[in-house]
Amino acid sequence: MFIGAQVSLYPMTSGFVDVITSSLGALDPYRSDLRIETDDVSTLMVGAPAPLIDGMRDLFAAAARQPEHVTMHVTLSRGCPGEPDDPSCRCDVLTEAQSLPLDERIARARQAVADAPVLGVGIDLQFSLYVLGQDRHMDEIYGCIEFLKDSGTFFRSKNFCTRLRGDAGATFEAVRQAFLRFGPAEGHVTIDLTASANSPSLS
Amino acid sequence: MFIGAQVSLYPMTSGFVDVITSSLGALDPYRSDLRIETDDVSTLMVGAPAPLIDGMRDLFAAAARQPEHVTMHVTLSRGCPGEPDDPSCRCDVLTEAQSLPLDERIARARQAVADAPVLGVGIDLQFSLYVLGQDRHMDEIYGCIEFLKDSGTFFRSKNFCTRLRGDAGATFEAVRQAFLRFGPAEGHVTIDLTASANSPSLS
C-alpha cells in the first residue's frame, strides 16, 4: 500500500512566508515517520495515516492559531495503482476495515471522532471522498455521509463535497475515518480536502 | 448531466479581498450561462464546460495579472449520482466522446490545446483526474496522461497528480479536455485542481 498526500498551506497575508515557516515546526514530531518533499506548488507527505493526518492537522492548527485567514488544500490518496508498496504506510485500521460490515465501520468511525483530542482551534473543512475502480462506489460514499452526519462535525451538504465545522481534532479525525473505513481496504481511495480558518466572510 | 465546480481563489496578500473582488469582473461574460453561489469557503459554479472552464480560467488569469502570489483550487465534477439533470450543462463534446476510441479522443484533445487562445499569463497547474464507478478506470487515466505528456503543457509527473506549466489558455484547455474526453460520457468524473502564479519559490 502507498499512502500519502499533496499538501498546500495558503495564508491570506503579505507575510505568508512567515506564517508557513513558523507553522512548519508543528510537523517536527512526525518527520521521522513521514517522507516529505516540497516544491513550489505543494508538499508531498508519504506515510501511515496516523502520522500523516496528525501532521497535516497540527500544521493547519498552528497556522490557524495566528490571526490571519488561512486555508489548506490536501489531495489524499491510498492504493493508487502504479505507486510502489511502502512498508512505512502500513495501517491496521485498513486491514480491519476490510473484514467489517458497513454499519460496524460507521460505528467505529463515530467513536474515533468522539475520542479525538481537542486542539482548541475551530476550523471549517470541506472534502470529497472518491472510491475508485468499483461499480458500487456510491454505497461506500453514502455510508460515509451517514457517518459524517452523526459525527458531531457535520455542518452541511454542498454540491460535490461535505462541509464540516468544529475543533481541528474532531474534524481531521472525521476525515481520517472517512479515508480509512470506506472503500475497499486494498482499493484506490482519494480525498480532495479544503480547510479554512479565520475567514472574514464566515457564514 | 450535472456539471459544475467548487472554486476558491487564494491571493497570498493582506489585500486578498481586493484581489478577489477586482478579479471577479472576469466572470461577468459568463454569468448568464452559469449558476454561481458563494459561501465563505468556495464558490459553486454550475454550467456547461465551455463557460465553466473559460470562466475559471479568466478569473484566475485576472488574479495572476496582479503582482501577488495567487493560487486557485477547483473541485470539478460531472455526472455525480444524486445530482439532478441540468439542461444548462449540456455538452456536445461529451456526447461525441462516447462514440470515439481512446486514440481518437487523445488526438482531438491535443488539437483543442493547440487551438486554445493565448492569454499571455504563464501559470503552473497540477491536477488529478478521477473516473469513478468502473473497474477499468486506470485505462482512461493512462490515456489522459498520454494526451497530457504530448500536449505542450506537460511539466512533470508527481505523486497523485500531473503538473502542467504554460499559458493559462493552453493549460486550462488541457484540463477541460482531460475532464471531457476521458471516462464514460455518462459516467461520474471529477478533477482536483490547483493553479498557481507568481510564486516566490518557483522551481
Automatic annotation (TrEMBL), chains A, B:
<dbReference type="Pfam" id="PF07615">
    <property type="entry name" value="Ykof"/>
</dbReference>
<dbReference type="InterPro" id="IPR011522">
    <property type="entry name" value="Thiamin/HMP-bd_put_YkoF"/>
</dbReference>
<dbReference type="InterPro" id="IPR029756">
    <property type="entry name" value="MTH1187/YkoF-like"/>
</dbReference>
<protein>
    <submittedName>
        <fullName>HMP/thiamine-binding protein</fullName>
    </submittedName>
</protein>
<feature type="domain" description="Thiamin/hydroxymethyl pyrimidine-binding YkoF putative">
    <location>
        <begin position="125"/>
        <end position="201"/>
    </location>
</feature>
<feature type="domain" description="Thiamin/hydroxymethyl pyrimidine-binding YkoF putative">
    <location>
        <begin position="4"/>
        <end position="83"/>
    </location>
</feature>
